Amino acid sequence: MMSNEIVAPILPCVDIDEIVDFYRMLGFERIYRQTRPNPCAAVRYGAIDLHFAGIPGFDPEQSYGSCIIGVDDTAELFAEFAAGMRAVHGKLLLSGIPRITRPRRRKNAGNSSGFSIVDPGGNWIRVFQRQDTDAPPPATDPLARALENAVVLGDSKGDVGQAAKILDGRLAKSDSATPVTTLAEALVYRAELALRLNDTDRAETVLTRLRALALTDAQSESLTTTLATAAELEHDMGCR
């Protein structure tokens, strides 16, 4: 059995300098650059190495490039990437290319936390938490199940429109029996989807509904991350 193996994907892009600048923004360092005979570059963050090949005329919208990165703490890594993005753009880039999603439980990954980066080359960098023994069991509440399905579509597959439809259908049926914490989480994700669709009016409507929820102190504490995300979304709406 070999040990200390290193695997580094080679992903496509249009411009190697553009893609290096993007990853530098997130906190990576450039470790290699070559322009002839073939343009290529490599970046590194800790033990994460990504290599890129410049392809003239390449269309990022048509990219199938993707890789999976396993980390111990998706929230910590996301916070570092997000800080770099906000320092440059003043907000998170949620739509178009490039963009980033927030860490959320994904039922298509064993309910482990994950987030995605779509870089300027259209490559999907999928970050997942390794050995997440605290992952909860699959949801049983109808809205919670709809939220799980929406996250898979919106964050894993990039089908934001269908994710929004799934949540809208279930949110319209929510009632007093719906757990208020689940409702809050669904509303915040629906607001984020609205911003990805450039529908600020819908985002504001959903966040207004969130603000009207009567949360106990205990519920607010359990929703610390969710409510912080809502505040970030409101900030990003002001930056548009």
UniProtKB/TrEMBL annotation:
Protein name, per record: VOC family protein
Native source species: Actinomadura rugatobispora
